[in-house]
């Protein structure tokens, strides 16, 4: 495959998502309008759905895309959540759980990649991303408050789904890689 094929439209959208993350962080930390932050976040999240759809429908799935797409997702979610910790909208310990899962899965992906194995996201991993895309705008608009409110329930459900999908990913991934290397 020629290097120019690596920069197809789906991969460009993934790279745009990576480039949007610092802009989102600046907007969140400098306390611009919450609506601006939500809009930037949702535009970035839309590139995730668009790049996957375009890659599959155009048959433009590349190794670069398979590896960069989940990294771009994790940068977006981690950048948003860590910024929200900084401004007091979410408890740090919940963000640590979510981000730790992402690091652990990336570690497993790296081991698999070293063996020329790509472990795709499963349905739980995709549901986790959807849940995160829903909860982040809720957290941007309102501080997390423990109790029976939409933001609290959404964050707890997202954290539980994040852990569950991580466990599923490890169960599947450990079956596929050679642990003796």
From TrEMBL:
InterPro entries recorded: CDP-alcohol_PTase-I, CDP-OH_P_trans, CDP-OH_PTrfase_TM_dom, CDP_ALCOHOL_P_TRANSF_CS, Phosphatidylglycerol_P_synth
Annotated TM spans: 12-29, 35-54, 75-100, 146-171
A single BP term in Gene Ontology: glycerophospholipid biosynthetic process
Principal subcellular localisation of the protein: membrane
Listed PROSITE patterns: CDP_ALCOHOL_P_TRANSF (PS00379)
Catalytic activity, EC: 2.7.8.5
Subcellular location: Membrane
GO molecular function, one term: CDP-diacylglycerol-glycerol-3-phosphate 3-phosphatidyltransferase activity
Record-linked Pfam families: CDP-OH_P_transf
GO CC field: membrane
Membrane topology reported for the UniProt record: Multi-pass membrane protein
Keywords: Lipid biosynthesis, Lipid metabolism, Membrane, Phospholipid biosynthesis, Phospholipid metabolism, Transferase, Transmembrane, Transmembrane helix
Enzyme class at the top of the EC tree: transferase
Domain of life where this protein originates: Bacteria
NCBIfam families per UniProt: pgsA (TIGR00560)
Family to which the UniProt record says this protein belongs: Belongs to the CDP-alcohol phosphatidyltransferase class-I family.
Name of this chain's protein: CDP-diacylglycerol--glycerol-3-phosphate 3-phosphatidyltransferase
Species this chain originates from: Candidatus Moduliflexus flocculans
Taxonomic lineage of the native organism: Bacteria, Candidatus Moduliflexota, Candidatus Moduliflexia, Candidatus Moduliflexales, Candidatus Moduliflexaceae
